[in-house]
Amino acid sequence: MNKSKCFFGVNSWRDCGFQLQGTKGLIVIDKKVRDLHKHRVDKLLGVFSSVKEVIVDEVEKHKTLKYAELITQKALDFNLNRNDWVIGVGGGATLDLAGFFASIYKRGANLCYLPTTIIAQVDSSYGGKTAVNFQGYKNQLGSFYPANIIGIDTSLLSTLNNREVYNGLGEIIKYIMLEPKTFKDADIDITPLVNDESLDFEKIIPFCYQIKIKYVNDDYYDKEGKRIALNLGHTIGHAIEKQSEYPLGHGQAVAIGLHFSVYVAYSKGKLELDKVKYYYKLLKRIIPNVPYKNLTEYVTINLKQDKKVEREKVLFIYPVELGWEKEWIKNESLVHYWTKFAEVNGNVDYF
Ligand SMILES: NC(=O)c1ccc[n+]([C@@H]2O[C@H](COP(=O)([O-])OP(=O)(O)OC[C@H]3O[C@@H](n4cnc5c(N)ncnc54)[C@H](O)[C@@H]3O)[C@@H](O)[C@H]2O)c1
């Protein structure tokens, strides 16, 4: 079960600061965030009685066991103990790395997350999953270790470039596809997604968060309960994110995965064509311009490494009219679906 306390809004860093006041802290921070939000970070440093920063450049590349060892050395030199704090400040990669380190350092230190990307704010900061990559494969080592406190301030998103915004939108669309009725009932306006306008993040991020809470609390350890649904779009997403020929961000890879899951659902008679077209409209602007055929090789190879693969079958999630379903699908059938989908480059008019 989760034990995180989450603060939202422009004062959320200050609220976390009250909890951290006078403590000893090791801050693992993304270099870009350190430079872009210097004033905010300097203010944060001021709340500690003693503080050390580990500034990480190109974090995804350093989300490794080796780098966790390097942080361990710095923490030992700083005499950090398990009652002190580790603070992750940055996107999902930074939080994964800081969380992974905090979870194993002296069997677990206090942990605070201050997420600065959409992905980190709607997804990775909550739910307790930490991870590092291993030999090029994503998230192969990890733990369940929820942050004690989280501060979510959407004003930090103003410095994200378009690519990172699109990445985040991929995860938001995932929630819309999982819970179309919840979004409709709450009257959340998602038309800006279709019109290429900006979403009201201050409203939509806490809303997505509430949805994630529901799924996580039902199945904290991801044992094929409800939490598996959060994998929507990720089976294919992870498979193509691993290739380096066409560098894709996490959310962009997930967007292609979501598009494919819509196709699988339609092929199985689980979605009406109208809905297929609607979801495509939402996804269209964030799907990167890569011919799907060129990704087939990576889909075929990397599907086998998916953590949800057992006896050559993948536990696959697809959207249905009012929510989602899960189904064990043979690897080879998924590859077959993908090949057909890629042949028409996912063009809905051919479905
Ligand atoms: N643990 C989980 O539950 C979970 C869930 C989803 C994703 N993830 C992980 O999260 C990572 C993807 O998340 P991400 O896209 O946030 O990655 P990221 O941390 O690599 O950030 C993406 C880019 O945004 C930059 N950035 C961060 N904050 C910024 C800001 N405010 N302004 C300008 N630039 C900023 C970073 O420097 C980086 O270049 C992957 O490693 C994925 O595996 C984890």
UniProtKB/TrEMBL annotation:
SUPFAM superfamilies noted in UniProt: Dehydroquinate synthase-like
Keywords recorded for this protein, A-Z: Cobalt, Lyase, Metal-binding, NAD
Gene Ontology BP term (one): aromatic amino acid family biosynthetic process
3-dehydroquinate synthase C-terminal domain: residues covered: 168-309
A molecular function GO annotation: metal ion binding
The protein's required cofactors: Co(2+); NAD(+)
Stretches assigned to the 3-dehydroquinate synthase N-terminal domain: 54-166
InterPro entries, A to Z: Dehydroquinate_synthase (IPR050071), DHQ_synth_fam (IPR030963), DHQS/DOIS_N (IPR030960), DHQS_C (IPR056179)
EC number of the protein: 4.2.3.-
Pfam families: DHQ_synthase, DHQS_C
Protein name (Swiss-Prot/TrEMBL): 3-dehydroquinate synthase family protein
Species this chain originates from: Proteinivorax tanatarense
